[in-house]
Design a protein that fits this description.
- The chain is α+β, with helices and mostly antiparallel strands.
- The protein folds into two domains: about 5-45 and about 150-300, T-fold (Roll), CATH 3.10.520.10; about 50-135, T-fold, CATH 1.10.3980.10.
- Helix content is about 30%, strand content about 30%.
- The protein is built from eight helices and 17 strands.
- It has helices at about 30-50, 55-60, 75-90, 100-105, 120-125, 150-165, 255-270, 270-280; strands at about 5-15, 15-25, 70, 125-130, 135, 170-175, 175-180, 190-195, 205-210, 210-220, 225, 230, 235, 240, 245-255, 285-290, 295-300.
- The protein has an eight-stranded antiparallel beta sheet with strand order 1-2-6-7-10-15-16-17. A three-stranded antiparallel beta sheet has the order 3-5-4. It has a two-stranded antiparallel sheet with strand order 8-9.
- α1 (about 30-50) runs antiparallel to α6 (about 150-165).
- The longest helix is centred in the N-terminal third of the chain and has 19 residues, at about 30-50.
- The radius of gyration is 19 Å and the shape is globular.
Length: about 300
């Protein structure tokens, strides 16, 4: 009989909460484990937040073009991954949209009446020197990692547990989740998928996860009215404006939650047809949910 006990820990991060459910020896120090999980997500927030003026990312945003800025290794890794996925997605994922995010009121400041011009592409404006642990911009650009940092933070929660010998867990921040191992009875971890409905929460379905991550991007949680029109927090790098699409949500399943997080945004921007094609090319499993009048239609890739 297993001597492992079920633990459930949670805490505040990134304007929401993280959770960690896991099975471990009864002798585990819950207080110490909680503190380490909190430190892991706090470290990501200090490095990558656009809501903290003194974060490492905001130091880079504030630096004059051409000036090298020393950065933590983790932030450089996330920046490099974001650029790579942006390239693979044909520009549908671009961390250079920070000025647009702010102008439409999805950042720390209120929305502005005058909208900025379409920003330069991050791949053109940002240069990384990983061996030197430094980065610089070549033109004024506001980098925003909200489409990838939360997934990376989930991966850090998983890393923290693994370092303490915990191999059976489900960790998450909002809809970004990572599972490892299984429950004591051998069953997989069950994760609910939400219907992409504004103002209420209903279950669309459930997935069983083992050694995998899931992340969802959609237009139904973070949105606001502008000039009588509902606009989503997801920016379309190609148009330089909030995404307008009948595709209302995309969930991506892969090993890394950081990759799942970024790819969910990229596929949402690409749309069902192009997104399905790219998902197959990248070996991703994805669930596309399309709004058709009052009905929802699912398109599955990789299942």
């Amino acid at each position: 009989m297993s001597t492992e006990q079920r633990y459930s820990l949670s805490g505040a991060t990134m304007g929401t909460r993280y959770s960690a459910v896991f099975y471990a020896a009864e002798s585990i120090d819950q207080g110490a484990q909680q503190a380490e999980l909190q430190q892991a997500v706090d470290r990501v927030d200090r490095q990558m937040s656009t809501w903290q003026a003194d974060s490492d990312l905001m130091r880079l945003n504030a630096a004059p073009p051409g000036q090298w800025v020393e950065l933590p290794e983790e932030l450089l890794w996330v920046l490099a991954t974001a650029l790579q996925i942006g390239e693979q997605a044909g520009g549908a994922f671009d961390i250079g949209v920070g000025a647009l995010v702010s102008a439409y009121g999805f950042g720390p400041q209120a929305a502005t009446e005058q909208l900025p011009p379409r920003p330069p592409r991050a791949r053109d404006a940002l240069e990384l020197d990983v061996p030197r642990r430094a980065a610089r911009t070549h033109s004024r650009i506001s980098l925003d990692l909200n489409g990838i940092a939360k997934g990376f933070a989930v991966d850090q929660l998983a890393r923290c547990l693994r370092e303490h010998g915990v191999n059976n867990f489900l960790v998450g921040i909002d809809g970004e989740m990572r599972a490892a191992g299984h429950k004591p009875d051998g069953s997989a971890w069950a994760v609910a998928l939400e219907k992409p409905l504004r103002g209420r929460r209903e279950v669309l379905g459930a997935l069983e996860l083992t050694d995998a991550s899931i992340a969802t991007s959609g237009d139904y949680r973070h949105w606001r009215e502008r000039d009588g029109t509902s606009v989503s927090h997801t920016m379309d790098p190609h148009s330089g404006a909030p995404l307008l699409s009948p595709l209302t949500s995309v969930s991506v399943i892969c090993t890394s939650c950081m990759h799942a997080d970024a790819w969910a945004t990229a596929l949402l921007v690409l749309g069902v047809e192009a997104g399905s094609r790219v998902a197959r090319q990248q070996g991703l499993s994805a669930i596309f949910v399309v709004r058709e009048g009052d009905a929802l239609r699912e398109v599955l890739v990789g299942f």
